[in-house]
From TrEMBL:
Organism per entry: Phascolarctos cinereus
PROSITE patterns hit by this protein: LISH (PS50896), WD_REPEATS_1 (PS00678), WD_REPEATS_2 (PS50082), WD_REPEATS_REGION (PS50294)
Domain TFIID subunit TAF5 NTD2: 229-357
Compositionally biased intervals (Low complexity): 178-199
Function field: The TFIID basal transcription factor complex plays a major role in the initiation of RNA polymerase II (Pol II)-dependent transcription. TFIID recognizes and binds promoters with or without a TATA box via its subunit TBP, a TATA-box-binding protein, and promotes assembly of the pre-initiation complex (PIC). The TFIID complex consists of TBP and TBP-associated factors (TAFs), including TAF1, TAF2, TAF3, TAF4, TAF5, TAF6, TAF7, TAF8, TAF9, TAF10, TAF11, TAF12 and TAF13. The TFIID complex structure can be divided into 3 modules TFIID-A, TFIID-B, and TFIID-C.
Composition skew (Acidic residues), residue ranges: 404-415
Annotated GO biological process: mRNA transcription by RNA polymerase II; positive regulation of transcription initiation by RNA polymerase II; RNA polymerase II preinitiation complex assembly
One family name in Pfam for this protein: TFIID_NTD2
Protein name: Transcription initiation factor TFIID subunit 5
Keywords tagged on the record: Nucleus, Repeat, Transcription, Transcription regulation, WD repeat
Amino acid composition bias (Basic and acidic residues), ranges on this chain: 427-438
The WD repeat ranges on this chain: 486-527, 559-594, 601-632, 643-684, 685-718, 727-759
Family: Belongs to the WD repeat TAF5 family.
Amino acid sequence: MAALAEEQTEVVIKPDPEGPPALPATQPGDCPGEGSGGSHNSSHNGGGGGGVAASSAGGDGGTPKPAVAPPAAAAAAATAAPGGAAGAPAAAAEGIASQDRQTLLAVLQFLRRSNLRESEEILRREARLLEEAAGAGAPGEMDGPGAEATSALLSRVAAAAGPTGPGPGSGSGPGPGACPASAGPAASGAGTGNSGAAPTAAAPAKVGVVAVEDQPDVSAVLSAYNQQGDPAMYEEYYSGLKHFIECSLDCHRAELSQLFYPLFVHMYLELVYNQHENEAKSFFEKFHGDQECYYQDDLRVLSSLTKKEHMKGNETMLDFRTSKFVLRISRDSYQLLKRHLQEKQNNQIWNIVQEHLYIDIFDGMPRSKQQIDAMVGSMAGEAKREANKAKVFFGLLKEPEIEVPLDDEDEEGENEEGKPKKKKPKKDSMGSKSKKQDPNAPPQNRIPLPELKDSDKLDKIMNMKETTKRVRLGPDCLPSICFYTFLNAYQGLTAVDVTDDSSLIAGGFADSTVRVWSVTPKKLRSVKTATDLSLIDKESDDVLERIMDEKTASELKILYGHSGPVYGASFSPDRNYLLSSSEDGTVRLWSLQTFTCLVGYKGHNYPVWDTQFSPYGYYFVSGGHDRVARLWATDHYQPLRIFAGHLADVNCTRFHPNSNYVATGSADRTVRLWDVLNGNCVRIFTGHKGPIHSLAFSPNGRFLATGATDGRVLLWDIGHGLMVGELKGHTDTVCSLKFSRDGEILASGSMDNTVRLWDAIKAFEDLETDDFTTATGHINLPENSQDLLLGTYMTKSTPVVHLHFTRRNLVLAAGAYSPQ
């Protein structure tokens, strides 16, 4: 069975002899659109003319980003003058000779590199270049290509002088692990998602050397804060803007209030970086109370950064600096803000807006406070609208046709709810499940999946028989709940999983052990030793029974191997294997035939918080403290894909039912959906106000439910990329989510010691997904949590760590009793 091609391991780039090594395409590293002046490089994935054969492994849809703007982009910029030519019409209009112009641009670039912004502005004004090169360059406007044009012109001079590395102040310095761009004609439109394409006249030019860094150069990242403003004026600037926003019309106030937090952080960091420590402290104390409550954790980290030296190794700071904070604002509100800042000549704030914020402008009515509150809260603001535009195949794969036996003598095989191995069923074509192909499903061979073994087919037959006895759930027919309480779990229960047929339960513990219990009367047995196996008659019908060693039968098996707490556990669909992930940075694969460790997968350098098998087996995903998720195949010791883009720990990972996508929930308060085929991020969901700890896909693959420390459960429509519901009720972290087998009910388990059941059918019916909603992302969430809540079930003092629906729709819940 061929695994996914490891297609993205090499990037064909000629490395700079003295520069850093080229970055493999599957290396972690977000690629935020970080062009100068808030513009957004919209050159697409894949290679263009220059043959960089990679789509980025992560980031906001993996937008590639040139470390030095290629001359092709310079040629495409409307204002570029031919190098060494007699003089372009634009230059002639300004009355500057071509040669002088080249010199002038070189000086401007030098000033920018040396971070002498004010001198650069003065020189521009003197040379009357403002109208042409700087333009009216608004960070998010379609019609403001000025900043990009300047950047392109400067780069062109640099390219003429010889290949240069990215300077600390250059307009398009690399983001963390900046991804290579195609060397062909790059489309360089400005800010918003609906930017215009590049001029067609762009001729492919020869690119010198593309410098690729796999770590952000800290000094380059921080040097953006080098602009010297009068430190005493910062409080006045911020107060002035605050006063302006609070006095603006109600319809604009809610939208413009989004500016408070990112401006506060960047102004504080600018003061600290320029060593105005007292002013920074005073600024922080005066305004930190105005920020929204869900930013408190981030502000706590920020308050500890009081000296320039502290900023060098601080990941939160680097994240904030290198990923643009995204604000979604209506055009009217944006024009109001721009006019105010220009009238007041408030350059300090305008510079921050241009350099560090990505303003996603939309036409139409401004959003209400409620609409904005539903979507904000993540570390980097909202998702850009383009991030959720890619097509997602959310339908289910066609089930293989399996013949169900005619006879109904299945009682003897059902004493274990698992594998009836003794008796081969008679084959008959009756009852074969021939479903039509789902129009939203991915092609059957889009990713290679393992073929069904005979034991899998038997299991599917058992599953179908169980399905006929399944209880139809609904508001009038709620499931029974069976709670497994781990008593005296002084080792500290940290993870639980239950097999699909509900025959086994596994627990991961803080004492680094994994324990497996049999939930049915059938005890756990190991395979006999090699010498005993050689004596067995291999032709006998019950050979699978004979290979098991009765002397080893017990209800509990303990697996030793990890050297730290076990935070994640997952059974394979065929119940032959168990995965566990640990604080020791490894994922281990255990055999449930011999109860020994088969493989230790080492790829994460830090604790691995979660791991999960694909619904088809073979593939599995893991996520951890290193802020990336990795896709593995059981027979490869290296990951097949690395999903990079989150700004904080990846706390939970889940496969889509069709196995073509992986969802990850992170402490950066976002959920991302990744395409297994190419490693691209195809959805970014923002709205939670705390780290995300649980994910569940609906059985039909259309919807995703997410739970976080804010106690809310949010519901998402994957196809449209929209939030469609909010379930309020829990008072603590939602640790577990599970849909019933037919998707009628959603169960949620929390640290508040309750299991709650919600009406999923009602939550998803009559969804307002018209074109307008999809285009603008405006959502109106009904306040109907209480109507959807079907029941709340309390434990005495047991947080709910895991939930599971059996094949007949009985709920199994698990947790460790915690004495008060």
